[in-house]
């Protein structure tokens, strides 16, 4: 293997580069104006999660006294923390400029975001009444000066740090003016954007923070002050779950305890309004024991800009993306029996271009069908009011045996999954709580139906969660099949959840942690052999993230052998494409657009008889070695062609595709080909299939 300082891109830096692509969407004037604000919210939300998880992990390496070079691609953890902070400060500065530009453009559309200094007399009465009725009763205000310790700030909650300079008392001989400091927590149960009464054609919005600033006098009326000011701060806490080893506790109890402990875990980032007074900032940093390993970010006037994801539409559909109507799957009706049609041939569902309703219909049919005996399914993330969960409970009430493997450690969904687990268990669903040392990330379902003297199996395998809410914005493939060989092996996966010491063998499925890496390496080796033999050899892959250095090295080996490789990686990509002598036969792009690209698709040329797979697994160490993942080969010719066609549409994108390169500049792909915006073209592809 050729060793080069450009051999890998550090995963944290690559992730920040991905978030830069999200920020690009907020700056793109071809994106509808309100959608641009929402992309700013996504950028901010992503950054919060990055600090909770990735920055916190690197910080732990530093605090353990280790360099971390072996896992960080050669860079020391301490240097990486500094580099991350530097990049984030630049991105935050850019995001503030973009926000300012968007606000100016909103004004041309008669939408005005006003602050507390721009409130008119006609708006004053509405705001004061709104504050008294809705804000004041839920406001948490803490005077800091006389407290023995600093209050525990909530993770990523936003606070106004208030400074009051009290008037000098007449009988005081000192020239010193007493200062009082306070914290006001911005309440989460109230919309961050308060829509004010419309005036003619003009819409006015005030951010809740500014509405509170306007009413500071009402909050602190017991103090005789000469000046008052308020600036935003927030902290981000380490989100790693530290598991309790108490053997007397159940797994649910341990997860619940860990989730609760997360609320008081160590802070890793402190963000403050850069216009805050030095005395106030010093007071806060001293009281909060901000450490050198914490990322201290000077920001703008408003934090928690993730709330922009919920910016009010104001009825302005012209400033948002057109809503698409999810399409039916050609040849399979939601009104008839899905089992009858799946018994005849495999079908592919591609959300959100096609409706998620096929999964719900499949489960509801299984719940009611008198011949169905068993339903087995994995759950990673469910919708708030999940029709999937309702269908499974319905099945139990109809006498079916229902087994649910629910992953209680799904990051940031732990509490929701605990609640679903308790609900399902109370209804009689058999629950399996994962495999010790592994997360179960596979997306699989198996139904066993009594047909004559035999058991017939039906099932589906997906690249994404069984979540009707995210299915409207995440692109994911789901294969519906009655292939007996595939489904017998799917049953082996469920057996493994309960009998973890038994390692099964698979002819069809690609299963982590035991086989995925080696199977894909063998498929790559076959392409290498074909290339060396002068045969056509290619690999086409679409994933969310690509961080496994071992798999990166394997693709470098294939590239040097002459295998043509096309990669579509939405997020992190540690591979460096286009480097002579290392990766010159590899091209890699990222597509960030209206929907979040989420499928995992793997295509190998195989000397003219292409092999195609979909999977729940990215090529990340965690997916290959520390999770239960399931990939499935595509045997149906029509489904295989769909996957080849939709990959090709994505690959031809020259509107929303950015190129990975040594420069890490997120340059848009430009060429002289006809314009292809792949997400729009994919919808048209399925629309044309229906009409053909």
TrEMBL record:
An intermediate of this reaction is the autophosphorylated ppk in which a phosphate is covalently linked to a histidine residue through a N-P bond. It comes from Arenibacter palladensis. Residues 123-311 form the Polyphosphate kinase middle domain. One of its GO terms (biological process) is polyphosphate biosynthetic process. Mg(2+) binds at residues 381, 411. InterPro entries: PP_kinase, PP_kinase_C_1, PP_kinase_middle, PP_kinase_middle_dom_sf, PPK_C_dom2, PPK_N_dom, PPK_N_dom_sf. Gene3D superfamilies: Endonuclease Chain A (3.30.870.10), Polyphosphate kinase middle domain (3.30.1840.10), Polyphosphate kinase N-terminal domain (1.20.58.310). Residues 338-501, 509-679 form the Polyphosphate kinase C-terminal domain. Keywords: ATP-binding, Kinase, Magnesium, Metal-binding, Nucleotide-binding, Phosphoprotein, Transferase. ATP binds at residues 46, 474, 570, 598. Belongs to the polyphosphate kinase 1 (PPK1) family. Catalyzes the reversible transfer of the terminal phosphate of ATP to form a long-chain polyphosphate (polyP). PANTHER family: POLYPHOSPHATE KINASE. The active site is at residue 441. This is Polyphosphate kinase. GO terms for molecular function: ATP binding; metal ion binding; polyphosphate kinase activity. GO terms for cellular component: polyphosphate kinase complex. HAMAP family: Polyphosphate_kinase (MF_00347). The gene is ppk. It catalyses: [phosphate](n) + ATP = [phosphate](n+1) + ADP. It comes from the Bacteria. Its cofactor is Mg(2+). Its EC number is 2.7.4.1. Residues 8-113 form the Polyphosphate kinase N-terminal domain.
